[in-house]
Amino acid sequence: MGFWKSLFSTSDRLSAPVKIQQEGRGAIAAEPRIVFSVDRELDLYELEELCDAVGWSRRPLRKVRKALQHSFLVVSMWEERPARRRLIGFARATSDHAFNATIWDVVVHPQFQNKGLGKALMKYTIKKLKSEDISNITLFADPQVVEFYRRLGFLLDPEGIKGMFWYPD
Amino acid sequence: MGFWKSLFSTSDRLSAPVKIQQEGRGAIAAEPRIVFSVDRELDLYELEELCDAVGWSRRPLRKVRKALQHSFLVVSMWEERPARRRLIGFARATSDHAFNATIWDVVVHPQFQNKGLGKALMKYTIKKLKSEDISNITLFADPQVVEFYRRLGFLLDPEGIKGMFWYPD
């Protein structure tokens, strides 16, 4: 699953702990932790389940695997309990390893939204890209998340530069 | 200079010949041809000269080399005469090799602009990306070239999707 493993350090714990809902496990459940990683092996079915949960169209796993292999950065976000870990967020970036990186497929599981975890995921992603000396981080934002990215410091159409798409027939 | 060499076939001649100014070489000059390639070795100084000609800021050659090595596709456009070839256009794309490709650094030498060569360069680039089964071709267009890309079939902010940029401090 790829060469980005060699580029970054191993998993990082979230520096500012985020309070997570206990999912009704009661008093015996240990406090779950949120962990970010750029080098954990991903189960493609677990990733598909995460993308299903936010209503994305299914994509062939063969192509998903290829896209992960050829992404510059693959970030995963996990809820960790003593007994199990669960994939709750994901983002990746393509890049020329020098000037430009483009972030794709940012997702946070609906049960974990509105807790600051999307922001934490993006900050972690930006930090990793900055550490690789990327000059310019770009993305294409759906209308409902433009404000979210703006608050993170992304500029909309700077100097009139416009995002454009071409879809094969 | 890179793995994209293995991905595509060798140089293609422009199917519809483009009339090129003869640069005052007189009657003995053979008709120059325009040739496109995805696998020709590029002289970084010649590429820098081309980018200088359109007024781009200089970039460290070390980073340019790295960016070319890690681009999915590097397209060059050449004017060929019997005695010499000259780099007159360039474009490249980053990609995850599966879903998304993003086109960067599209340039045509000023002496060769307004002859349909920018359009030919982009059509060639799109054809190559299509042949690799890329689902989605994107780019970030400066205001003065939005119309150019629109005429090529690129959509501006489709479904309200917005291009956003984050510049490291």
From TrEMBL, chains A, B:
The keyword Hydrolase does not apply. Keywords: Acyltransferase, Transferase. One of its GO terms (molecular function) is N-acetyltransferase activity. CDD domains: NAT_SF (cd04301). One of its GO terms (cellular component) is cytoplasm. The keyword GTP-binding does not apply. Residues 34-169 form the N-acetyltransferase domain. This is GNAT family N-acetyltransferase.
